[in-house]
């Protein structure tokens, strides 16, 4: 049975640590998040409790993290990467949005002084100094002391300093050298591409190469929706230096943006993640499931026209999505801006963008009307009797445009995985990427396959 939407499981925050650190670095932040998140730290190979034999290359670290997420089974999750872990997090996010099996449900990413997918900017003299610390074996206490002092804006709390020191001293020499000599220098920009998902990028005001300016330069192009925040006075070890501020920033980000979209029932999300769904279909659904940008700026319409379209959408396609709604108007507007239509238009109408602009200008007062007046206006549009005072379209053209607009809005609503779960549609699960497609066997009305989620729990 599907997970009821009125009592969903907590989302999961997967944390990937920095060079010389471990999963324990997130503990102070996690203690402040536990009411809303399950926080899962993952040791990267050669750090913490993870053996170096798991693989020290960037590719092997990405595979290790993806395997841990699959094994957990999370269906609604954030990915947080600190410094070195930021590069790994970006590549895992790229795989999730590309439709890799078992990785469905990524809602957003948090970078804490994150290393980019491109070569990490690093002063070469400092790199050589750090390499020298491990030339004959693991780091010693003097090297750990110098590393910590060079990466904080102010002295750490004694507990956090002890944790950082312990992690540095048990870091394997092989893992330390592998990152500095190879991993930090590798360019994975092509594999990452542009990741259009909710992103929070935190930087310490006193950090060096990966500080505020560096973050905007190297991670800004990867994340067009990135929200940049600066922790003034902090250095590079953000989870240990400013755990309360990091936790508060993550909660704001989740509540306002990454977690603001409609929830997808757990069993339905697991079906999408399964091998019954092709990678291409899963990638499409993964991107559709992302929360809408609360700061979306229209590209084909004016802000006033988009506001009018939102008012029309609210009355035309009412939503009850468990406390969150899809911004159907913004999604239609994005389609108009991209030039990707449905392949046809009424001969009596101008091209789609022109038709939308003219029609919405003709409905400019719609958002200010009461619900009864709005419904009367929509009824007149359907009947072909509404003659706009402005906008340049006739009553018949407004009727044709509204027929098109209704189709566009409903198409966006039906395309969302939360809507598919609500109406019980799982036709996308007709076979994965293997040579033999599972398909459907029980096709009679009222019958369901044994693997299909039951719909009784959906509101």
Automatic annotation (TrEMBL):
Recorded GO CC terms: membrane
GO molecular function: hydrolase activity
All residue ranges annotated as the AB hydrolase-1 domain in the record: 16-249
Gene3D superfamilies assigned: alpha/beta hydrolase
Keywords: Hydrolase
Entry annotated with the keyword Hydrolase: yes
One Pfam family named in its UniProt record: Abhydrolase_6
Protein name, UniProt field: AB hydrolase-1 domain-containing protein
């Amino acid at each position: 049975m599907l997970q009821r939407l009125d009592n969903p499981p907590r989302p999961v925050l997967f944390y990937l640590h920095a060079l010389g650190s471990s999963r324990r670095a997130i503990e102070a932040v996690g203690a402040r998040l536990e009411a809303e998140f399950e926080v899962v730290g993952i040791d990267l190979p050669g750090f913490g409790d993870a053996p170096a034999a798991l693989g020290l290359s960037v590719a092997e670290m990405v595979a290790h993290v993806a395997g841990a997420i699959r094994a957990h089974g999370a269906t609604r999750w954030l990915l947080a990467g600190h410094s070195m872990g930021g590069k790994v997090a970006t590549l895992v996010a790229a795989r999730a949005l590309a439709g890799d099996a078992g990785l469905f449900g990524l809602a957003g990413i948090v970078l804490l002084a994150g290393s980019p997918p491109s070569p990490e900017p690093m002063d070469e003299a400092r790199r050589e100094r750090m390499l020298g610390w491990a030339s004959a074996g693991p780091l010693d206490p003097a090297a750990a002391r110098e590393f910590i002092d060079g990466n904080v804006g102010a002295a750490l709390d004694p507990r956090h300093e002890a944790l950082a020191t312990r992690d540095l001293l048990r870091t394997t020499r092989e893992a330390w050298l592998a990152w500095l000599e190879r991993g930090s220098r590798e360019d994975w920009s092509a594999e990452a591409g542009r990741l259009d998902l909710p992103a929070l990028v935190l930087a310490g005001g006193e950090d060096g190469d990966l500080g505020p300016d560096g973050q905007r330069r190297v991670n800004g192009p990867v994340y067009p929706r990135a929200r940049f925040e600066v922790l003034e006075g902090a250095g590079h070890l953000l989870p240990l230096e400013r755990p309360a501020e990091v936790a508060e920033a993550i909660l704001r980000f989740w509540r306002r943006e990454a977690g603001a979209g409609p929830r997808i029932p757990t069993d339905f999300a697991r079906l999408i993640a399964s091998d019954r769904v092709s990678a291409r279909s899963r990638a499409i659904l993964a991107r559709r499931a992302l929360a809408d940008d609360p700061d979306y700026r229209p590209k084909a319409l004016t802000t006033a026209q988009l506001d009018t379209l939102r008012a029309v959408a609210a009355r035309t396609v009412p939503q009850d999505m468990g406390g969150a709604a899809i911004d159907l108007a913004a999604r239609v507007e994005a389609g108009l801006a991209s030039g990707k239509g449905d392949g046809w238009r009424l001969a009596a109408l101008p091209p789609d963008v022109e038709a939308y602009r003219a029609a919405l200008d003709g409905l400019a007062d719609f958002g200010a009307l009461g619900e009864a007046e709005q419904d009367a206006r929509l009824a007149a549009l359907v009947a072909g009797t509404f003659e706009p005072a402005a906008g340049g379209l006739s009553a018949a053209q407004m009727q044709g445009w509204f027929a098109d607009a209704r189709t566009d809005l409903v198409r966006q609503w039906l395309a969302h995985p939360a809507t598919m779960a609500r109406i019980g549609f799982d036709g996308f699960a007709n076979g994965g990427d293997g040579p033999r497609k599972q398909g459907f066997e029980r096709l009679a009305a009222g019958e369901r396959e044994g693997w299909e989620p039951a719909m009784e729990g959906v509101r």
